Request: fold
Amino acid sequence: MAKKTIDQVDVAGKTVLMRVDFNVPLDDGGQITDDRRIRMALPSIQSVISRGGKLVLISHLGRPKGDAGDSKYSLAPVAKRLGELLEQDVAFASDTVGQEAQEKAGGLSDGQVAVLENLRFNAGEKAGDESFAEKLAALADIYCNDAFGTCHRKDASMFAVPKAMGDKPKVVGHLVGKEIEYLSGAIENPQRPFVAILGGAKVSDKIKVIENLLNICDYVLIGGAMAYTFALAKGGSVGKSLVEKDYVGLAETLISGGGDKLRLPVDTHCGDDFSSDCNKQVVDAGKIPDGWEGLDIGPKTAQQYADIIASAKTVVWNGPMGVFEMSPFDEGTKRVAQAVADSDATSIIGGGDSAAAVDQLGFADQVSHVSTGGGASLAMLEGQRFAAVDILDDQD
Ligand code: AMP
Reply:
């Protein structure tokens, strides 16, 4: 069931408490090095202020310890940057539920914005504390969740706050609405053939995703270092490749359960060192010589995967096919990215490294959706339900 969006509630003259993801990278001097997350929140922010709502923004930033209020994680620079982007004053409260927050939130006129200090300066945030949440909820008439990256968590601002809002409107913002539309749309009602591409460093991170997607997809294509744990499970040699020996048994189970759906590399691009200028060779999968390590899928595998992707109607991709940061071991990831970009499929790229790879290789604007949440998008692909989303209002 689709969730009610911020555009669908009347915000004029009302105070909206919006949970956003302002977890931006900062340099040692406290300067924002990439303001993308602030800019991405602008559509939901504009939706409120352009219609005369009063907006109170809440977010976490980094991992400050305890209650101390570690100033290097202050949201003050974010409030300043937001003011520049909006070209209007943005108030900043140096606390979250204290007197200043109440005054700044209560003092807003229609169309004005306040940012409260880092939620994680209060231990109640990570603890999901209800009395902390009640104080936040009391600031507003409407709650909006536009922080997809934390939707798989039950932090106070994600779950206890909307719970404490009671019958007041609780809606999704533009970012979360789009994530749910694409990710849960793919899982609940995919156009077929539905192809999942899973790579990255560790099979252990993605077991539940592989298990869930084997039940739903028509093909699951495996790449990245996790392929070598599967190669070991098939009795192959993997040289000094990255493997997780403890997961070989599980890989065997996935191979026998996955049948023809589960596709493993047929060749491997390996090197005698973890560096761009190492000696290189392409070998058949499972035939990596001693002293060599697999660093990418080989060209035959890349072609086979590209052919499967070409016929897909839905593609979900999480994890690079090789060490894409290190040329020429980016070739497999590039070939797959090109195939995804060329296909007519609805294509969904998981957050984290896959999003970075697609971005770095220049394909980000040729896919349907690049998720903003690494952990959250994986959790959704695992088939997890998100309490933080379930608690929000459904569309009428
Ligand atoms: P993940 O965060 O699990 O998606 O893993 C992404 C990381 O996996 C990237 O930094 C890649 O460089 C790394 N990776 C992918 N393939 C390999 C490989 N064959 N050997 C070592 N690291 C790899």
Observations:
- The mean pLDDT is 94.
- The chain has two domains: 6-175, 182-381.
- Residues 200-202, 205, 224-225, 242, 294-295, 319-320, 322-323, 325, 352-353 surround adenosine monophosphate (CB under 6 Å).
